[in-house]
Specification:
- This protein is α+β, with helices and mostly antiparallel strands.
- Helix content is 34%, strand content 28%.
- It contains 10 helices and 10 strands.
- Strands 1, 2, 3, 4, 5, 6, 7, 8, 9 and 10 form a 10-stranded mixed β-sheet that branches.
- The radius of gyration is 19 Å and the shape is globular.
- The mean pLDDT is 94.
């Protein structure tokens, strides 16, 4: 069985509060791209994991117990009392520690695939609960559709986007720890944002008008830890036909939205001239049917 795990983007990310247990409450618009990790699942007597791909080096050295794919498979196996194993092979195409939710997407994809692979029954409610126990982004990745997400990631309202925009992703080939970003955010005592309630996605104009009134509340923390990011965003916003440029998640990957492939590709070439050592790719929004 071969499946894909698409990278996610936070088109905006507002921190709206903090629970007593320390978890932050968020308000965000999740979308998914055609940039994906690829996962191959084959029969095995136990759970095993192997990794290759352009970004495999960042996670190949870690203990298997720390990998979200392995954790997800074991969690499902234990929860549903499955006696089968699985040989899982990951081709890592999504940068690691990049704000693209690659680990969460991988875990979500494996949870959904193993239900079919092991021929077992599992309600969506149980699946989402398992996902949330693995990470805040995992439930939205399980749903796999553009969605307004709130709470600690468990409140998910799928939406229909007005168009499939083209996306330029740029990463400075540096890792930003999500934990470090949130610790910096907390130390800065940044005021919480009000929750976005009135979201209008009926037309492309309404969609961008809505996004223009939003932001990424983790920008300040990320910029402090990686001071080159503001200039990268400035360069992206200068590109012809750029409709929105922003950092996704806890960074450091930045994205720019364009109306067509040609404009996105032209911007990629321009950014390469300015930042030849940066990773970049042109992709599109992915919609799971």
């Amino acid at each position: 069985m071969i499946i894909t795990a698409p990278a996610k983007l936070n088109l905006f990310l507002h921190i709206t509060g903090r629970r007593d247990d320390g978890y932050h409450l968020l308000d965000s618009l999740f979308v998914f791209t055609k940039l994906s990790d690829v996962i191959n699942i084959a029969p095995n007597t136990c759970i095993s994991l192997s990794i290759d791909g352009p970004f495999s080096a960042a996670i190949s050295a870690e203990k298997i117990e720390h990998n979200l794919i392995y954790q997800a498979a074991l969690l499902l196996q234990k929860k549903l009392k499955v006696t089968h194993g699985a040989n899982i092979h990951l081709t890592k195409n999504i940068p690691v520690g990049a704000g693209l939710g690659g680990g969460s997407a991988d875990a979500a994809a494996v949870l959904k695939a193993l239900i079919e692979f092991w021929n077992i029954s599992c309600s969506m409610e149980t699946l989402l609960e398992l996902g949330l126990s693995l990470g805040a982004d995992v439930p939205a990745c399980i749903v796999g559709k553009p969605a307004m997400v709130s709470g600690v990631g468990e409140i998910i309202h799928p939406i229909i986007l007005p168009s499939r925009l083209h996306v330029l992703l740029v990463n400075p080939r540096q890792v930003l720890s999500t934990r470090a970003i949130f610790e910096k955010y907390k130390r800065d005592d940044t005021p919480f944002s009000a929750q976005k309630i009135n979201a209008d996605f009926s037309t492309k104009e309404a969609f961008f008008a809505f996004l223009s009134a939003t932001k990424n509340d983790l920008d300040r923390a990320a910029f402090a830890l990686l001071p080159t990011l503001p200039q990268l965003l400035t360069e992206l916003r200068k590109q012809p036909d750029c409709q929105l440029a922003r950092m996704t998640g806890s960074g450091p990957t930045c994205f720019a939205l364009f109306p067509n492939h040609a404009a996105a590709t032209a911007a990629k070439h321009a950014i390469f001239q300015r930042y030849p050592d940066y990773w970049s790719v042109v992709t599109m929004f992915h919609v799971e049917h």
